Amino acid sequence: MTDVSTPLEKQRSRAAAATKRGRRTAAGQGFGRPSVTWALPGILFFGLFAIVPMALAVYLSFCSWDGLTSPTPVGLDNWTRLFKDPEFRQAGWLSLLLTVISWAFQTPIALMLGVWAAGRQRNRAVLSAIFFVPLLLSTTAIAVLFHSLLDPNFGVIKEIGPWFGIDPNILGSSTGALLTVAFVGGWQFMPFHTLIYQGGTRQIPQVLYQAASIDGAGPVRQFFSITLPQLRNTITTSSVLMIVGSLTYFDTVLIMTKGGPGTDTTIVPYLMYRTGFQSYDLGYASAIATALVVVATALSLLMVKFSGFGSMRSTREGM
């Protein structure tokens, strides 16, 4: 049979064969995929500071322990108490409400700021750098700062609050205290999510916007038809981090409200702290902590499952 291949096809075949030989040679000489040895430091670190404490918490959730004497196994007593405890149900509801408020507050603003900050203009770079400053501060410092600003007797809120119709004792009201905690958390971590959206926006091929402009699409149409679909996986990543972070708020509540007024801001992490380190019931506190980890993990997996993020389909197919 006569070979009718063109010179170009023969050249491509020889190049492909050479590439395969090079890959086999590199793999044979140890230049292929890194071995698991490179991951050992990370695995050991994660196991020592994450898996081991988590396993201890699960074990202690089946024990009675005051932190001083030896833990005493009590079977399912802590878990039975957990599901019957009205205080835990209230704390769970407040944690869920705080998570929803935080997500609804942070996501639209962080998305718009991230898209805006993805521009190449010099003024945007300067303003973006200033906006990211809260991310560099510790949560404790920010909570102390806002607690001072919102002090009804000596804080700035006493002077400017009435101008905007805000009660100076905003931390003394149940709704105001919860919204304030959500605002303070959003003020600190919104720059982080803005940075995520900025990076995702800059990965969108500009040819899509150029083609849309030729077709007569304006900025708003381009945002909803190009930017949002291309940022689907980015939104999922940001939302998972935001939800897990909101479920684990602690230091902001501890410093600003101490779970008050009453128990109106006693979310699950603060209830865990109060049970373990004020009531010295560390066995029940471990059950609360384990339940919180299970819920946060389940919510994250559900978001990844139903958003299609787990399939990792490329949004740039055909580019």
Entry keywords:
1% strand, mainly alpha, 14 helices, 319 residues
| Number of distinct beta strands | 2
Q: Give the termini distance in whole angstroms.
A: 39 Å
Helix content: 55-70%
Poorly predicted sequence stretches spanning 5 or more consecutive residues: 24-30
Shape verdict: globular
Indicate the proportion of strand residues: under 5%
Radius of gyration: 27 Å
| Widest sheet: strand ordering | 1-2
Series of H and E elements: HHEEHHHHHHHHHHHH
Class from secondary-structure proportions: mainly alpha
Count of helix runs: 14
Largest sheet: 2 strands, antiparallel
Average pLDDT score: 86
Protein name: Sugar ABC transporter permease
Subcellular location: Cell membrane
Keywords: Cell membrane, Membrane, Transmembrane, Transmembrane helix, Transport
Transmembrane segments: 38-62, 93-118, 125-150, 170-190, 282-304
Task: Describe this structure as you would to a colleague.
The protein is an all-alpha fold and 319 residues long. Helices cover 68% and strands 1% of the residues. It has a two-stranded antiparallel ribbon. Strand 1 and strand 2 form a beta hairpin. Helix 4 packs parallel to helix 8 and helix 8 (174-202) runs antiparallel to helix 11 (232-247).
Q: What's the gist of this structure?
A:
This protein is 68% helix and 1% strand.
